[in-house]
Fold this protein.
Amino acid sequence: MTKRNENLALAAGALGLLGGYALGRMVAASRTQAPDTLPQASLLDTVALAVDVLAPTFAKGVIIRRPGAVALAEQWQLDTRAVQRLQKLRNKYGQGPLMLPLPIRKQAVVLSPQHVYRVLNESPEPFSPASSEKRAALSHFEPEGVLISQGTLRTERRQFNDAVLESNQAVHHMAERFLPIVDEEAARILAAARAKGELDWDAFAQGWYRLARRVVFGDGASDDQELNDMTVALRKAANWAFLHPKKKATQARFFARIQHYLERAEPGSLAAVIARTPQSADTKPEQQVPQWLFAFDAAGMATFRALALLATHPEQAQEARAEICAKPGIERKFLPFLRATLLEAVRLWPTTPAILRQTTRDTEWEGGTMPARTGVLVFAPFFHRDDQRLAYAHRFTPALWLHARSDQEWPLVPFSAGPAVCPARHLVQMLSSALLAALIDGREPTLVSGQKMVPGRLPGTLNNYGLRFALETQG
């Protein structure tokens, strides 16, 4: 058996054991729905949702992707099946939220655009980001991170993240330091591509993760492969949440290494910004930084997929080049069209497909009451690719992002939304768009391997690990 199939079989086996237990308990727990309660899915519909939506999401890896499982998901277009399953549930049960008759915990699935905004805008109370599943997973590598903190601790840690990452600023004040790093790493990526004769994921990722370490910790961390290896090991364990024991020794070395870089506070890095940012003993900066590294991982996947969009849409690629020509050097700190391209890559192929919340108290809805401690799932691909509601569901449409969006519009939430929105979203867009600019400036990318990209009918799943590009110099 190949390593790819071993990973998928392992995930499927674990889900099968849990599913078998859950199925028996659901049969025993099923009962007639009271008239004042939220709609409840039938047993068969719950099993179908688990098979088409939950199992593939788990198998691909919720914290760090399993490349083999992602390749199989692309081959079978499992994200398309997931969207279709949720469309059937919405058409059958109405706007929801839809309760699932699970035996172990109370769980709801959001099916309405208005409910998406309510859940995200009313976080962290009463819809807490610190869901049971998220705490079990993230405790492997950031047990005191902001995402799984609550109360005053969460408030303090969120303020710290917002301050360092400048979450409300389109351009970080360190842009003049960071953009030369982007150009240097782009040159390394292009050199590796020339040596190979093509640009593949390995060459791109090596440069991207160097860029991330230099931005966060400084040039002294650029070649710290051991830090990267520890990150990967801890996040692989986190994929299994409560099913995997903690790697306590690795975790201790991981935090010690991060603390070392933070104490150095190398000028020109986020570590130096941290050193100047007010904090208390409860802030735990070394526990916030792992989430930033996590965000850079997702941003790398989105950037490589954005390159695939430009390589297969000549008109939009030309518009991107016009923007690049008009903004040389440091002016590339804000590239609206290329940022929109990145946002489209995340809309089409969300890097965080399952947005999780958990109710801290009973909440009232049009159809009834949702009990306290109910898990709430917003499955982003359903809202981003709902072709029963969106004419542009499967099209590359960067114009969606060239104006400010409001809660009155369809919920497109590439970086979540509301008070718990990703604090690194603007920094990520700045760095990713600048890297895209450096890669295509004076070059014509051509997709030579990977999923077929048909404009107007883009695939539901895109395996970034399988993309390969030729980069021809323009005459």
